[in-house]
Amino acid sequence: MSRITDIIHSVPVDELTGSISVPVYQTSTFVQEAPGINKGYDYARSNNPTRKALEDIVAKLEGGDAAFAFATGLAAIDAVAKLLKTGDEIIAVDDIYGGAYRLFTQIYEKFGIKVHYVDTTDAENILEFINDKTKLIWIESPTNPTLKITDIQKIAEIAKPFGALVVVDNTFASPVAQLPFELGADIVIHSATKYIGGHSDLVAGLVVTKTKELSEKIKFIQNATGGILGPWDCFLAIRGIETLELRVRQQSENAIKIAEFLTTRHEVDKVYYPGLLTHKNHEIAKKQQNGLYGGVVSFSLKNDTVEAANQLVTSTKFFKLAESLGGVKSLIAHPAQMTHASIPREKRLESGIQDSLIRISCGIEDVEDLIQDLEKALTIKENLVLKEN
Ligand SMILES: *Cc1c(COP(=O)(O)O)cnc(C)c1O
């Protein structure tokens, strides 16, 4: 049986009624026959059948032992960080998701957990920081917004002898394009707000664990700290997963065509997309990403100014100006003023976020319409984008 058939049919048919879609068990508690005698459910923070259906599908999707659904991607990241104690250390990719950076620096460092931010595009760079206090190695690949790629397998090989767990935030690739457990990861997390939900109508997070031992630990944290995903949102996430493969394939096909189009434009300076042969770590991306590179493309302008970027991001019709990514409708964003506005300009420039850097999330629209939309926005009258300085 192929993977896609397996995933679609792993959504269970409701035993009571035959309902082909998972019922939304909107309940807080479950009636017991006698104290402690129940049908496997007692209280909805601990477990809920709609959530269980989602968690089982996600475990299968990533090839893990178990999965756990949280209220947001950040709540999922927080649950994994709670595996640590004072004195432990984390090595994290240097352009980690901004919310994770804020969580580590402003919450966890207060509790005596040290985080080293390292450029992991060369895996060996972690050697300088890894020691027996290192408990987690936190990787995103591709990263946001410059789509840097890390060799996950190499990182796992270096981490193993130190007993450090490799955590991969697989949000940008999605399990369609990348399976981190096959590359040696121990924990996979997702902002299901993005590709897994896929319709820009949901905020959710997932933790997937490779071993039973880790599953028990995360299950305990999920119940003890309580940041679970509600049943209606679990239903939406399941419905998203049923079309995940179709969507990510289309988004990746659109993205490579758009990235290639952008490289031909004289208004455009750099184009960042792991599917391009010119990408620094294209060979690694090709090896670990099943030939799909996701729907996010970033690019900068020859006129490297905020004003030029502003003109472009407010001139598109189909690319809607908004944060987030992974939905069926295309989005456009200006990181320096939006997702990365809280990072000082100097630091932004260091990590390649130029003043004019623009990030697009390709949806599933017809790619010719999307290309025309960008073409028009690049060539409107009194073109700031074109002006070279
Ligand atoms: C959006 C995002 C998160 C945070 O997820 P939320 O659902 O917004 O809390 C974490 N990691 C990555 C890579 C993201 O893009």
From TrEMBL:
PROSITE patterns: CYS_MET_METAB_PP. SUPFAM superfamilies: PLP-dependent transferases. One of its GO terms (cellular component) is cytoplasm. Pfam families: Cys_Met_Meta_PP. Its cofactor is pyridoxal 5'-phosphate. One of its GO terms (molecular function) is cystathionine gamma-lyase activity. Keywords: Pyridoxal phosphate, Transferase. The keyword Protease does not apply. The keyword Transcription does not apply. Transmembrane segments: none annotated. Signal peptide: none annotated. GO terms for biological process: transsulfuration. The modification N6-(pyridoxal phosphate)lysine is found at residue 194. InterPro entries: Cys/Met-Metab_PyrdxlP-dep_enz, Cys_met_metab_PP, PyrdxlP-dep_Trfase, PyrdxlP-dep_Trfase_major, PyrdxlP-dep_Trfase_small. Belongs to the trans-sulfuration enzymes family. This is PLP-dependent transferase. It comes from Moheibacter lacus. The lineage of its organism: Bacteria, Pseudomonadati, Bacteroidota, Flavobacteriia, Flavobacteriales.
